[in-house]
Amino acid sequence: MMRKIGCIALLLMLAFAGFRASAQQKTDVAKPKEISPDLFGIFFEDLSYAADGGLYAELIQNRSFEYSPADNRDWNSMTAWKYETDGFGYGTISVETAAPVHPNNPHYILLDIQDEGQKGVGLENSGFDGMPVKAGKNYSFSVFLNVMSGQSLPVKVALVDRKGKELGSSSFTTSNKGWKKYTEQIHVNFDNDSAKLVLLIKAKGKVGIDMVSLFPEETFKNHKNGLRADLAQVIADIKPKFMRFPGGCLTHGDGIANIYRWKNTIGPVEQRVEQRNIWNYHQSVGLGYFEYFQFCEDIGAKPVPVLAAGVSCQNSGGTWRIGGTGQKGIPMEEMSAYVQDVLDLIEYANGPATSIWGTKRAAAGHPAPFNLEYLGIGNEDKITGIFEERFRMIYDAVHKAHPEIKIIGTVGPSPNGEDFDKGWKLADQLSVGIVDEHYYEKPQWFLKNTARYDSYNRLRSKVYIGEYASWGNTLFNALAEAVYMTSLESNGDVVRMASYAPLIARIGHTSWNPNLIYFNGTKVFPTVNYYVQQQFAANSGNEYLPGIIKLKGEKTVIDTTAGTSSVRDSATGDVILKIANAGNATLSGEADLSKINKLPKSATLIVISGDPGAKNSSDTPQAVLPQSSVIKLKKKWAFTVPAYSLTVVRISGANAEKRK
Ligand code: AHR
């Protein structure tokens, strides 16, 4: 039976391959071709503490006491917290749900202080592996308190080191009964990488405590509820053309109840619906859809939200990548509401500030639209009947209501196979504009597959390579990716977008390797792969110029370990040449620059090279860095590039005309 199905599939594949070949438009290699202006972007997923404990600048862990064993079997509402009675105070502490700040945020602490002792009674939070604080800097503290009995209560919040030495503090007095938000500024006088926050109440009384929060005053672009400035800046420095969020598997979730619902992640943080993270920790969703859109705008990246296609991850309830039986569909009677949620997202992003969802965007401080252009539906889902039925519903509704939105469909988790074929077939039937291909492979795979898109049918859906990476962070890995990326540029008419994945990971909390950027509480470590991505994104063009670079040497060596590309950015007129050499020998060649109008005398040369096994790690953060210099140009520019290198030449101010 299996054999028969296999044969039918093969026949269908051959028939389809024939169709692809005959319907294909030929690319005229002599002429420049338009390529995607959005080719290289980034993929953000709250994986490996990328959001909470990562890009989201909140320093308090479990600020709302919502951690639970569902997140992680060792966790509960008091994780990262300690009951503080150091000054011999006495009372009781309990986790309550009877009268919360908001029903979406059910847990809070109830302190019943019977004797305040010498120092007071309260709570201590240890942050994410400690809180890094800097002398001379201010920190924004806030808390919701509900004084249930007792007079106005004196409260002290202090940052302390491991031995209890005070690094900075602030005091205030509660003013009335009922939940109220108190905000304070804490000025810090000493550097410390692993501070704790202590909140002490020095009076008898009964008080509810929730949403204990501490942010550095200086966040990225100084937004409130903002992002960690150093990490955000390293991401911004890639100069990505787009940013995909919030995942990955996180998007379609571990079971239907765990599907990422964008509406749960907007509005006042104390009213957002927190939930388990599929990667076995917790999502405070403090970094939610508003913050994602805002970050995209801040770094000049087009937002690419990806929503679940009405189904949960096929690996739900099982071991990661094993199983494949856990996909469940949102019940059909709930699907029209789900489809409406998808449409509402478009209104939230693009609708007028007077529309229902645009009003909420405006209330968050952004009356102008976010100019949403792309929308992903589904994440490498198993292409089943359950999936297809729901995908079609969402696709048809969005396509009808918003023909201006470029919908990205999904074709499974691998570069080929059953879901890949079925996903493409569905995309053909619906004429989906773009499909999302994913692959994590050995570096050799990338070197062998540089011709992958040469034969793609230009009349079918375009491609977004939403997730890809070679398995490793060595220079050789990064160069295999670079060689492959030159082929994405030459195929930039069919490959519209590509994003390396995953983007960032906190050292000590990585659920997935490799990543593009590693970080700890105080430092950020870009990998060699990062510098390759940065060179391609920052030096991209919207026009591919074929036939400029000719490599000399053995064809088999060139074909298997090297890649070149030449693009022009029409906005600046700059022409950019790239020569990626993942081989162990120097390569030479010539670039014919004679067609560039007013060729300048010099250009910027950037080279990434070194030992193929070298990596940037927390011990050797600068093992391989791009080196920049200025070179003289000639109409026929002869070059030699080192073994294991990426060379980028940016010819600026050339006022380069289109090649005739
Ligand atoms: O990037 C890590 C994971 O890999 C993503 O969450 C998933 O989509 C893919 O399988």
Span of the ends, CA to CA: 58 Å
**Which small-molecule ligands are present, each listed once?**
alpha-L-arabinofuranose
Give helix % range.
10-25%
Radius of gyration: 27 Å
> How many individual helices?
13
Q: Could you characterize what this model shows?
A:
Helices cover 22% and strands 31% of the residues. The protein is an alpha+beta fold and 660 residues long. The protein has 3 domains: 2-35 and 543-651, Immunoglobulin-like (Sandwich); 40-57 and 219-538, TIM Barrel; 81-216, Galactose-binding domain-like (Jelly Rolls), CATH 2.60.120.260. An 8-stranded parallel barrel has the order 2-14-17-18-19-20-21-22, surrounded by 5 helices. Strands 1-26-28-29-34-31-32 form a 7-stranded antiparallel sheet. Strands 3, 6, 7, 9, 10 and 12 form a 6-stranded antiparallel sheet that branches. Helix 9 (418-430) links the parallel strand 19 (406-410) and strand 20 (434-441). Helix 6 (332-350) crosses helix 7 (356-363) and helix 11 (475-490) runs parallel beside helix 12. The radius of gyration is 27 Å and the shape is globular. The termini are far apart. The relative contact order is 0.11. Residues 1-30, 320-324 and 656-660 have low confidence and may be disordered. The chain binds alpha-L-arabinofuranose (AHR).
